[in-house]
Write a structure and sequence with these properties.
mainly alpha, 0% strand, CHAD domain, 302 residues, 2 domains, single chain
Length: 302
Amino acid sequence: MEPDPFKLRCGDRTADAAYRVLAFYFHRLRAYETAVRAGNTPQNVHDMRVEVRRLRSALRLFRKVLPIRAAPALKEDLRQLAQVLGRVRDMDVCLLRLNKALCTLRAADRRRLAPCLRCAREQAHRARTAATHWLTGARYTRFTRRFMRFMQTPPVRRGKKTAQAGRRYIRRRWQAVRRAGAAALHTPTEKNLHRLRILCKRLRYACEFFTGIYGQPAARLAARATDMQNALGIYHDTVLTLRWLKKYAQRPTTPPAPTTLPALPHLQNILAHQIHRRKRQALTLYPRFAHRQTRRLIKNIR
């Protein structure tokens, strides 16, 4: 992404910034439609899902100046789209993690676990088909029309100057990250780490929205938040893969074949070890992320 795609200026009002940010990411979202429908690569799904997350984050960030009546319906549309794309992304990640874990097993165990991998591929295919239907159906068409009407609706207020509001937005996001980080370090549960990942993501997006105004401090803070988010994301993906594998082993309707069952504990142990290692890496990274260098960047955003 170019350094300042929104062309924001310090004297712009918050409402002007909100509509520019939303228009930019909506345009990028539409640009990924064809590739996702064609099912070219998992990266296309991930890219489109990122644009959905950025739109949701922008609606949340600028909620005080945006049209109140139209926003809830739009948020619900984006939530549903995120769920549809999320199922595809989750299965793509699951397949990737399973394949990597299988490479560490003996050839005999890999042959026994072939039905497990086949089941994951089938579920990934169904998730992709469902996403294609959603994107070509009436719900997505209504969403795009609703969004374009939303963009033509006047704001409820123009808000403060962007330089002043953006600084407050970023600092609030940072304070939320610090609270979540303290909770995760004290009690590193899956829930607390997931919460920290989401808040790092919101901090990153807020910095990206205002990089054109604050320059390098915002860009560097976004990069640091991205590194933290990625470390937590790898941990989260591995947790999802192990959870899927346990559900596969306990399916009541179509249980795994007798030849597959003995090999499943080996695969589960590998994933459990990876989860422990990824959690340790993320918890080690967080104190460096929350170090005085990050706090200095926050102070320099002014």
